[in-house]
Amino acid sequence: MSKTTTTKSLVGRVRNFYNPNAWDTEPARETQSYLHGIRGLLAISSILWIFFHTFVPTLTAVSAGSPPDGPKYEKVIRDVFSPIFWNYSLISSFFFILSARSICVRFINDPKPASFAGSIIRRLVRLPIAVGLASGIASAVMKGMGTEYIQTFRNALPNSSIDVPQIPYDAVAALNSMFELFWVVRSYYFQAANHFWPSGTIWNLSLMYQQSWTVYFLMLILPYSRASWHIQFLGLFAAGSFWMNTWGWYDAIALLLTDYVINPKLSPQLHAGIKINEHVTIPMVMPGALMTAAGLAMKYVWTLFPQFINEELVLHPYIDLSETTDKNSFAAADPYPRLDNFLFIFGFLLLVETTAVLRSALSANWLVALGKRSLSLFVAQSLVFWAGGIKLFLHLTSSGADTATANAAVFFVCTAGTLIGGEIYYRTVDLPSQWVANWAYRWLTQ
Question: Where do transmembrane segments lie in this chain (predicted)?
Answer without folding.
Answer: 41-64, 84-104, 124-146, 166-189, 201-222, 242-262, 282-302, 342-362, 374-394, 406-426
